[in-house]
Amino acid sequence: MADRRAEGQRQESLGRRYLERAGLRFVAANVSFRGGEIDLVMEDRESLVFVEVRARRSAEFGDAAATVGPTKQRRLARAAGLFLARHPHWAQRPCRFDVLAVDAGEIGWIRDAFQPMDHA
Question: Cα(64)–Cα(27) distance, rounded to whole angstroms?
Fold first, then answer.
């Protein structure tokens, strides 16, 4: 389990560097709340971006982005709402949910990957 956690942290660090090189500014990492965690919170110009980093060593069981299904999306949206409640100075900013999919070492960035459901 510790190896998986270390690998996850390595992938998140890689993702953070990737996004920073693309011009985003780091806000927070590994923000945990009951029922959900946000891997990265970044600032992209006027927007606050909640980023889920997913990694797969091979595509044998599907690509990394496909693992961010409706249940995961609801958890991310709930965690983002709690983050905004805890940090109200960010609450007036436009927000979006991005996915960084690391498949066999290749990074794919899906901007605005999903819209949270109002009834989630």
Answer: 24
CA atoms within 13 A on the CB side of 16: 17
Looking at the DSSP bridge assignments, the partners of residue 25 are 43
Query: Considering the entire predicted model, what is its pTM?
Result: 0.86
CA nearest to 55, candidates 98, 114, 8, 21: 8
Closest to 8 (Cα-Cα) out of 88, 102, 83, 85: 102
Asked whether residue 77 is domain-assigned, the answer is no
- Residue range 47-61, pLDDT digits in tens: 999 999 987 654 544
Contact 74, 117 (CB under 8 A): yes
State the pairing for strand pair 95-103/47-56: parallel
Q: Note down the domain range covering 56.
A: 2-63+91-114
Q: Are 23 and 44 in contact (CB under 8 A)?
A: yes
Residues found in the chain: 120
First and final CA of the chain: distance in angstroms? 30
